[in-house]
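Retro notes
What went well: the complex prediction finally ran end to end.
Inputs used:
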Amino acid sequence: MEIFKLYWHAVQSRVCAHCVDSDRHGHCRLSGEEECGLKAHFPRIVQAILSVHDPRIEPYVDSLRRNVCAACRHQTPDGRCSTRSRLDCGLDRYFPLVIDAVEEAHVGFEKHEPAFGD
Ligand code: SF4
Ligand code: SF4
């Protein structure tokens, strides 16, 4: 869906450009088995973030765990993720920045896509 490309550009410039695993221009250097959860689950992440409206981070983390991590091959049925424990998941590492980038982009896109995420 084209709208997700627009969200991806917003996240790439806000998050990936500053990530230790990027080339510093926002291009991820990880692929294959190492692919970041941010890339692997992006549309689901956007929907998980936009389904929450709360000043606290915890409801966003809950939504991420329920809607994204639960479908990720790295998480075990009892909710553990060794990739997350090792701080090797860029999505989890930078999640507050991802939230900000998606929500700010959404405010901008809302003028053109009023129904998305509501
Ligand atoms: S590891 Fe994740 S956050 Fe970092 S550059 Fe790659 S996709 Fe972006
Ligand atoms: S924190 Fe773990 S389960 Fe969640 S997206 Fe990252 S690697 Fe997957």
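What we learned: The helical segments are 2-14, 37-40, 42-50, 58-67, 82-85, 90-93, 95-110.
What to try next: split runs per interface for comparison.
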